[in-house]
């Protein structure tokens, strides 16, 4: 039994007759920031609710730092910080009152409690709203209060359910900076359906669909499963000789993007086509405004995995 | 157990963060005064006691206590904060008891604010203050029983209005179970069943405390009722968390 990681073992949850989470098994190592992906209704939130001890699994279990979520729920909850979907909190309390309450529940008293409070207030820049009631705060501030609540006891495990959902781009950036700034020995699990987030903060991504695991790898690995992996896009004002481009070794297809006046050439799996295309362009003297190589499109991989289309 | 006071003080604070506390106290004091002087005929009775005041408490509580209790869990569930609360490292016992105790202490506070009644009756005559203390204790226990029922009903319903109606109904049954109109409906039943139904009645238990007789059985009756309904609350919360 490993005391430093999270292990999900055949975790299953049934609502009525639907298996919302279906025999889910994977593990997360310390230092990993796991992106937990899936379409709405795939079972992400339900899985997180089981990990945090809010819901009880119908079968299977998970171990967090060696503690079983079914039998040692209290221990698990002590180790863990959790931001539930929509960041629920007590709206009629002030930010100070609310965070003090959480710190006291977490066992901090007097000076220690004050110190924890000061630390998260500084980290999440909550100083200007400290004595406002939470109901009167903007969405961005409310979310930060939710995050402050989750990290106030410096937890080993942080579970964040859609932490940036509904925030503006600046606020999203702030939240991501915060997640990146967490110390390196923690385990962070973030559920999201914003794919740019995964490449921005996660070291690993797990995709689930209909409660089942459908992919598990680094964001780079997942991107390389896209049909756009190594694809080359040419932006040009003039029509090009498409037949000659298609005839190049390794090129498997061609897509027109009339809106952007560009062409995308797809690569055969494992092939690198950039050099050939570049050579052809200079040989023919084509005027190209832009030429990009793609790493692959995560949204494309996501779509094909979660809808069952072929890659 | 260390976290129990933290929960109680947060809950208690939340009553005063909204106008709820002040409105409740105001209405409680006004109504209890009206009942005592007009319906109870406090002056006309010409006796130096507070039975005109206490006799109406079961009926006063019937509508006021459910209003206090309805938000206990329904609001947590509606705002989603129940998920926050239930994923903090605290036990079911601490949460259910803490919320109840806060509401009960608040009801006790409102009750203590009726102290001018005690001053008045002491000014007008020479009442037996021992009886008054016992009656206050009885009234507080009664409020606790109503609150525990309300806590369970609030856990059952996501909607506060439904929680309110369910609580009023359940409390009403406990009030009327000693009245002849209910007991007559049981005339087909064996005597022990009739006795059992009658013994559930709040007013019967309450009036003996109101006479200054602190019978351990009556106190135990209220306390065990509170414990039973709070246990039911914990079960309901576990069952209905997901919804």
UniProtKB/TrEMBL annotation, chain A:
UniProtKB keywords: ATP-binding, Nucleotide-binding, Transport
Domain of life assignment: Bacteria
InterPro entries: AAA+_ATPase, ABC_transporter-like_ATP-bd, P-loop_NTPase
UniProt domain ABC transporter: residue ranges: 6-235
Molecular function terms from GO: ATP binding; ATP hydrolysis activity
Keyword ATP-binding belongs to the record: yes
Keyword flag Repressor: no
Pfam families the UniProt entry points to: ABC_tran
Family note: Belongs to the ABC transporter superfamily.
Protein name per UniProt: ABC-2 type transport system ATP-binding protein
UniProt organism field: Azomonas agilis
TrEMBL record, chain B:
PANTHER family cross-referenced by the UniProt entry: MEMBRANE COMPONENT OF ABC TRANSPORTER YHHJ-RELATED, MULTIDRUG ABC TRANSPORTER PERMEASE YBHS-RELATED
Lineage: Bacteria, Pseudomonadati, Pseudomonadota, Gammaproteobacteria, Pseudomonadales
Compartments in which it is found: Cell membrane
Membrane topology (UniProt): Multi-pass membrane protein
One Pfam family from the record: ABC2_membrane_2
Coiled coil location: none
Record keywords, A-Z: Cell membrane, Membrane, Transmembrane, Transmembrane helix
Domain of life: Bacteria
Residue ranges crossing the lipid bilayer per the database entry: 12-38, 58-74, 95-119, 131-149, 161-183, 219-237
One Gene Ontology cellular component annotation held by this UniProt entry: plasma membrane
Protein name, per record: ABC-2 type transport system permease protein
Sample GO molecular function, one term: ABC-type transporter activity
